[in-house]
Fold:
Amino acid sequence: MQSLRREKHVILPSLLQCDFGNLQREIEQLEAAGVRGLHLDVMDGHFVPNLSYGMPIVAGVRKLTSLPIDVHLMLSEPSKYVRQFAEAGADNLTIHAEVSEDVGATLELIRSAGTGVGLAINPDTALSSIEQILPLCDLLLIMSVNAGFGGQAFNPVALDKLKAAQRGFPELLLEVDGGVNLTTIAKCQQAGASLFVVGSAIFGQSNYRTALEQLNAALS
Ligand code: DX5
Ligand code: ZN
Structure:
């Protein structure tokens, strides 16, 4: 993920809606379309009302690509699994600020596991509530939907938070996730995001290269 720091903007496909029966082909197609990193959404059916996949899929993706793997942990107790996701090959681990365990301690655990350290906030969570622990992070993920499902509509509350985060924490990588598409991506960039997680706007298209080209064209 550190390699992505040097880039002005990076689109990270969220694999949630990819064809898991053809993971190798999906990743080959994304690489051929020029993607610079992948976003993997891990859901436990408890922190969010949806269940996705865990360490074996991260390890499987790791075997298929050398692209940076950005893992978004939507788990009630992420601290239990940090080491296993790091060993599975994650380059960055992002946890949610809304969990009830000690978030600062889990961020430190991620640091000691050797991956990038990310913190995510849902639309209802104020930036002010995490200011104290942001110095522990490399990356701030501002959710523009409530975490849990692909295909939701973009919530513009994320734009104000991105602007405030850029002003207050210019050293952080700012990532946005949820409803990012041809209509919303440029606004996210103008608000300060440099990492753009995109699910439906890529996997809902038959040609990933065209989808990526159009999204990149919308960015300056
Ligand atoms: C939602 C996930 C997202 C999701 C994005 O909880 O974190 O990464 O896959 O999908 P779209 O782009 O369809 O909103
Ligand atoms: Zn995500």
The chain has a mean pLDDT of 97. The chain has nine helices and eight strands. Strands lie at 10-13, 38-43, 69-74, 92-96, 116-121, 139-143, 173-177, 195-198.
